[in-house]
Structure formats: structure tokens, C-alpha cells
Design a protein that fits this description.
Distance between the termini: 27 Å
Strand order of the largest sheet: 1-4
Radius of gyration: 11 Å
Number of strands: 4
Order of helices and strands: EHEEHE
Strand content: 15-25%
Length: about 80
């Protein structure tokens, strides 16, 4: 499970984040390219999910992350 204390500073502010345990495997970027991007040796959240569909895809990436480096605070749901 991702650790909010290890949240990468490059992440966009909001609910989803990537922490320092990321190995830059590209899984999240393949599954949710609207949310995740390359961040210099690791993935980052470049844009928080804007729709419920984007949120589901980002959650799929969270579950598929082999190192558990993607986290969510469970809030900031789209209106």
C-alpha cells in the first residue's frame, strides 16, 4: 500500500498519488494515461481523475501496480 508520507512532490494535488517506491514499470501509464505520466525515473499523477470513468481507470491502475506505489486518500470525488 502506498505511503502518503512518501508521496512524490511532482504529483498533482488531490486524492491520487504515487510514492517513492515506484519502479517506473509503466503499468499505470498504460492503463490510465489521462491520469499518470513519466516523472523522471518514476510515474506521477499528472492530472487527478476528472470523471467517474477516469477514477475507475485510475483505481484499476492502483490495483495493478506491482509495487503498491499508487495511493488514494479516498476523497475528492468528481461532482
Amino acid at each position: 500500500m502506498a505511503n502518503p508520507k512518501k508521496r512524490l512532490p511532482e504529483n498533482a494535488p488531490g486524492d491520487f498519488f504515487v510514492d517513492t517506491t515506484c519502479i517506473d514499470c509503466d503499468t499505470c501509464r498504460q492503463l490510465a494515461p489521462a491520469v499518470f505520466a513519466e516523472g523522471g525515473g518514476h510515474a506521477i499523477v499528472h492530472q487527478q481523475p476528472a470523471t467517474e470513468g477516469d477514477r475507475r481507470i485510475a483505481l484499476r491502475a492502483l490495483v495493478c501496480c506491482p509495487t503498491g506505489s499508487i495511493g488514494t486518500h479516498g476523497g475528492d470525488r468528481p461532482a
